[in-house]
Design goal:
single chain; about 180 residues; 7 helices; about 55% helix
Length: about 180
């Protein structure tokens, strides 16, 4: 039986298990709403019915992303990855581009986790990684760069229940209060 909290101490939140975090990641990746995980095990949901191209098609085989530690952040990372793959497909990029991005993403998430186990990788980190690649390829052309970044962040960080207040506050802070 757990001990009651010490007077004045905040109650601790229940730690999520790795399967819960990975389930949240897959929900975001597959475009499903995030729900509290109630079942145990590593059951993988079926891929979405509509896949637009070779890059988005790679997501059917992406069942987990090692190094993720927070369910909401994992959900946002999944949403960001899905949108990035859709952008690659819209641009007519071959599947090798998406595969390379996913390989680099896996390496970045695992490396960050190995260096700092308290760090949380999420949607904004995934978008930042994409934008770094975008800058190397296309340059930092103000309007397009800002529009792509804003669109990706807005999608990745949107509240799964439809509320945008937290997202807007975060985006405003990222933009320096503008």
């Amino acid at each position: 039986m757990p001990l009651p909290p010490v007077r004045g101490e905040q109650p601790r939140s229940k730690a999520l298990s790795v399967p819960d975090v990975q389930a949240a990641f897959r929900a975001g990746l597959m475009g499903r709403p995030m729900r509290e995980h109630t079942a145990t095990g590593l059951a993988v949901a079926a891929p979405p019915a509509r896949i637009s191209g070779p890059n988005e098609g790679l997501l059917a085989d992406l069942t987990r992303l090692p190094g993720l530690t927070d369910a909401r952040a994992a959900f946002a990372a999944g949403r960001a990855i899905r949108r990035i793959m859709q952008l690659f497909d819209q641009a007519g990029a071959p599947g090798s581009i998406g595969r390379q991005f996913l390989d680099n993403l896996r390496a970045a998430v695992v490396t960050q986790h190995m260096r700092d186990r308290t760090a949380v990788w999420g949607g904004s980190d995934t978008v930042a990684m994409f934008m770094e690649m975008y800058t190397r390829i296309l340059g930092e052309d103000g309007t397009d760069y800002a529009r792509v970044e804003s669109s990706l962040l807005e999608h990745a960080l949107a509240d799964p229940n439809g509320s945008r207040s937290r997202t807007s506050t975060f985006l405003k802070a990222l933009r320096g209060g503008r």
